[in-house]
Amino acid sequence: MTVATQPYIGTFVADSVHSSFLFTVTHMKIARFSATFHDFDGRLVADEQGTRLEGAARVESISITKPPEFRETVVNGAQFFDAQNYPEITVRSDDLQFNADGTVVARGELTIKDVSKPVTATGTYQPLVEDPFGGVRGGIELGATVDRRDWNLNWQAPLPKGGNVLGWDVELTVHLELVKES
Fold it and tell me: What is the number of helices (H) and of strands (E) in the chain?
């Protein structure tokens, strides 16, 4: 049995150098393809009203660079992210459960292409530490698997001997190094 605890009190922002937002999907049934978003922000607020975690990633900052036509299709294609019309992916959780065993569960809402759906992410957290510069830091790692069709990311092509080129399930992984605001 785990016991709920509250390791974070105050407002924390994601250290963008030491944090990452990654997605992974199966490609051609044989390999896993991953990409990250370089421009994102995250914030955790723990106060008398509860604990909230929210973040946003700018679609244009996706790590896919080559070939340019593939990047353009993923970033701006209507069956993918369509960044011209939907430039950000956002997430918000007002229901975080920190357990004494170092695990965390975050229930919230993921919005892609103006479609918001509930999502539950699980992972671990690290207790607060003082950094060499007098700041206070903590870490949270979360993961969830979602069906991309729920957010109108519908592109697909059949493989010649059956199956799909691109998996429907997408693993989302967030690594947050959080810095306490003074």
Answer: 1, 11
Residue-wise pLDDT tens digits, 41-54 = 999 999 999 999 99
- Give the 3-state secondary structure of residue 66: coil
Neighbour tally for 144: CB within 10 Å? 18
Structural domain including 46 reads 4-180
Q: pLDDT tens digit string along 124-163?
A: 999 999 999 999 999 999 999 999 999 999 999 999 999 9
- Judging by DSSP bridges, how do beta strands 31-36 and 20-27 pair with one another? antiparallel
d(CA 44, CA 10): 8
Q: Give residue 122's Cα distance to chain centre.
A: 11
Q: Cβ neighbours of residue 96 under 8 Å, at least 6 residues apart?
A: 51, 52, 53, 104, 105, 106, 107
CA 2 to chain centre: 25
**Both structure tokens of 87:** 């430039």
Q: What is the CATH number of the domain that holds 91?
A: 2.40.128.110
Cα 159 to Cα 28: distance, rounded to the nearest angstrom: 7
Angle, CA 121 vertex, CA 119 and CA 126 arms, to 5°? 150
Q: How many domains does the chain have?
A: 1
